[in-house]
């Protein structure tokens, strides 16, 4: 990969590729969206692109801290988007991170009301291209009105995009890939959540010629092809977009303690349990998870999160079943709040990831493993996670711990799947596939971004016509 960059610099120096392409990026206002957009920005910024990274001041503040640690950030320019302020939504709430749920509707509205300012920004910055997110048809319309091509980039996988578009456009018709489906309780949850449907469809429609996905052919090739065949554009995978520069972050005492604990365990003997930064387990789920980890007899680290503001006041001992901590002793470690996921996955003692199957976590499990990809025990919670869990199982790098018909987690099932994926002979093929796929993805580096650079350069060099 280093040689690739070097080669490109030499080519640029010789003047073969001199025109710098200016790209304005506008992700949705949450960390889960901003982070993959920023990974894309970093990769494009070392490939002859200048990036205007556009978000609210409160979001840009946290990006600034991340960017100053890097040296090569001069071609990423942060651009403030000011949402109209209102009594309900002061500027520190101009982000979906930690936003009280009842204010979400105000945030979405305020974001749309910033369209006029967005238009002025485009006029003054005159980018060659706009990259916008799933719920912003207005951003594409404004770009189009100024003859600037705009392409959509979604942070979810191709199977989810294909399945979601199919559900919205052809409800009632069967999805052509039977391995992707929803269970009864998952369907009921999904149906409650269709508020943004029209906006999502419009945004998809507006994407100019191509459509960008956080995906790769090794995982979702057939869904990527299906999308390009079914909808009138080329669907372009951008690769896993997993952050690279984590080794520099300094150890705090708690991280050190976790690493020392891992050091004592045998190779691939620990399951790491974490369910994302936006989901909190219900009491039923906490109890089932404890049972599962207990019955599995496998070493574990469990990152147990609670909502901001409540976390300080909760005692782990009180939410866990009586006697659980004494029973597991040194076999398990429970971490309240945030855990150093990269370091844990990279440690050679870690041999399984009990995960909600958030799309980032799936990629991280494969790419951050210390000795190749780490197999997944899937416990999907909501949104795209059930579909991701089906993908993980279909490509053979993990198994889902299935819930009962009401959607309750089952301790015995969790224990059974942990043992299968990590210990039993029946899971050997899954462990092998995960390891191998992880190695393939790491070796491939940013091949997708090299393709994307060519794709975008072509898009910007031809005459724009809507
Ligand atoms: C998307 O575009 C197609 C064809 O141009 C059109 O028929 C359809 O109504 C559009 N859908 C939306 C939601 O704008
Ligand atoms: C947490 O405890 C502190 C100190 O007892 C208290 O001031 C605060 O209101 C509590 N927070 C919540 C969310 O209960
Ligand atoms: C890059 O593009 C070429 C030509 O279209 C294709 O064969 C190859 O699979 C692409 N590579 C990746 C990693 O997507």
TrEMBL record:
Species annotation: Oldenlandia corymbosa var. corymbosa
Alphabetically ordered keywords of this record: Glycosyltransferase, Transferase
Highest taxon of the lineage: Eukaryota
GO molecular function, one term: UDP-glycosyltransferase activity
Protein's UniProt name: OLC1v1031097C1
A single GO BP: glycoside biosynthetic process
Family: Belongs to the UDP-glycosyltransferase family.
CDD domains: GT1_Gtf-like
Domain Glycosyltransferase N-terminal: 21-243
Pfam families to which the protein is assigned, alphabetical: Glyco_transf_N, UDPGT
Presence of the UniProt keyword Magnesium in the record: no
Keyword Transit peptide (UniProt): no
